[in-house]
Amino acid sequence: MRRSKSVPLGRSYLALAALATTGGLAACGRQQQTYCADQNGVVVPDARCDDGSPGHYYYTGSYGRGRSPGYRLSGGSRVSSTDSVGRSNAGLPATGHVSNGQVTSGGFGSSSHGSSGS
Questions:
Q1: Strands 102-105 and 77-80: what pairing?
Q2: How distant is the alpha carbon of residue 42 from its chain centre?
Q3: What number of other Cβ atoms are within 10 A of residue 80's Cβ?
Q4: By the 8 A CB rule, do 32 and 76 touch?
Q5: DSSP letter at 91?
Q6: Residue 95 CB: number of other CB atoms within 10 A?
Q7: How far apart are alpha carbons 111 and 92 in whole angstroms?
Q8: pLDDT in tens, 36-85
Q9: Residue 33 bridge partners (DSSP)
Q10: Alpha carbons 100 and 34: distance in angstroms, whole number
Q11: What is the C-alpha to C-alpha distance for residues 92 and 49, in angstroms, rounded to an integer?
Q12: Count of CB atoms within 10 A of residue 41's CB?
């Protein structure tokens, strides 16, 4: 009869596995910021999204805080500033003012999808 041999896991392997798991869980609660921007992703004053001007969108993603007008956003998702359903789906208020840099939680298990209507 042949007996299987078990391989003991070293401490470094276990520490690495624990670190990887912890890092993955930390990413679940990653914060996202929302900015008012034009159709090209260039940040504009947040009041432009308040007045219902066509061609202005809320972009939500892991952009960091303090992005000033003129900064070009990349990635993330966008929703028309006048789309109340899309805003709600993105975790924003359906109507009303949203300040540039407003923080929403995101990451795994969250959704920030919206339409890109005009």
A1: unpaired
A2: 17
A3: 21
A4: yes
A5: T
A6: 11
A7: 11
A8: 999 999 999 999 999 777 899 999 999 988 999 999 999 999 999 999 99
A9: 61, 103
A10: 6
A11: 13
A12: 17
Distance CA 92, CA 11 (A): 45
Phi, psi of 61, deg, nearest 5: -175, -175
Type of residue numbered 97: H
Could you tell me the two tokens for 30? 């990653």
Is 41 in contact with 70 (CB distance < 8 Å)?
no
pLDDT of residue 36: 96
97 neighbors 50 (Cβ within 8 angstroms):
yes
Q: Cα(101)–Cα(36) distance, rounded to whole angstroms?
A: 9
Token readout for 110 is: 């969250």
The model's pTM? 0.64
Give me the residue label for tokens 């914060």: 31
CA nearest 87: which of 54, 55, 114, 49? 114
Identity of the amino acid at 14: L
- Is the distance from CB of 81 to CB of 56 less than 8 angstroms? yes
Side chain identity, residue 63: Y
Q: Give the pair of three-digit tokens for residue 43.
A: 């940040």
